Amino acid sequence: MTMPSSAAPSREVTLLIGAAGMLFHDLANLRQQLAENAAIRARFLGRLHPGPAAVRMLRLLGAILATPARWKALMLGGLVGTVTVAEVLVVLRLATWNADFFNALEAKSFASLVNQIWVLLAIVTGMMALQGLSLQTKMQLQMVLRGHLTRIVRDAWMSEGRYYRLRMSTGEHDNEDGRLTEDVRVVCEMVVEFLVSLLYAFIQLALFVGVLWLHSGPLTIAVGEASFTLPGHMVWVALGYAAIGAAIITLVGHPLVRATDRR
């Protein structure tokens, strides 16, 4: 016996039922992901943290240590630090190479000059390899941190119907997902670049201060009948020169910091 055509489910109804099932399945997965990150969200986004924006960003990024991605982040962070130390050592070797090169010229030794040329090629090759490795590891670390921060921000945006209530509020609220993505990218890139640059500067400061201290020697300064000896005098000259330059740069560039924070 043939069922009447009116009782048979149409193709559109079947597709609608299938789409509804997929939607419920996606909502269930989303609810599960929100629940998994609830602890992190409650800890780092549940209340407004005082202090500068940089501190709040570091707290958000530091939350990766409570996730399964912490080992990958720690491994990449350690590799970035090791490569940074190696880069400073290569720069220090280049500085000592200058002395060896001019000593070879002063001695008029062709064999020593050729040897220093090979040493320079090795230094340049090593520097290029380290810079390439540093760029690759920094980008991988930024990607890991970006994925972590994206999940936190996405969960906060999707929870409690914020994405829906935002549509009902007044003001311009277009392309929220794109804005969140761009903010996360900028934060991760700037934090990694800043911390690596800071580490590079501190290591370079320590090594070159040590080199200047050992090679500059004491300087005796006479003022009238009194005199005093300044040990490692080139260290103090270099620090004074750097302090003057840093003061000028800070005075000129400080407004740019506030402009970047506002953006």
UniProtKB/TrEMBL annotation:
Coiled coil: none
Domain called ABC transmembrane type-1: residue spans: 166-263
Topological type in the membrane: Multi-pass membrane protein
GO cellular component: plasma membrane
Alphabetized GO MF terms: ABC-type transporter activity; ATP binding
Superkingdom of origin: Bacteria
TM segment ranges: 73-96, 116-135, 194-214, 234-257
A matching Pfam family: ABC_membrane_2
Keywords (A to Z) from UniProt: Membrane, Transmembrane, Transmembrane helix, Transport
Subcellular localization: Cell membrane
InterPro entries the UniProt entry points to: ABC1_TM_dom, ABC1_TM_sf, ABC_transporter_sub-D
Keyword Cell membrane: no
Name used for this protein in its record: ABC transmembrane type-1 domain-containing protein
Species, as recorded: Phreatobacter aquaticus
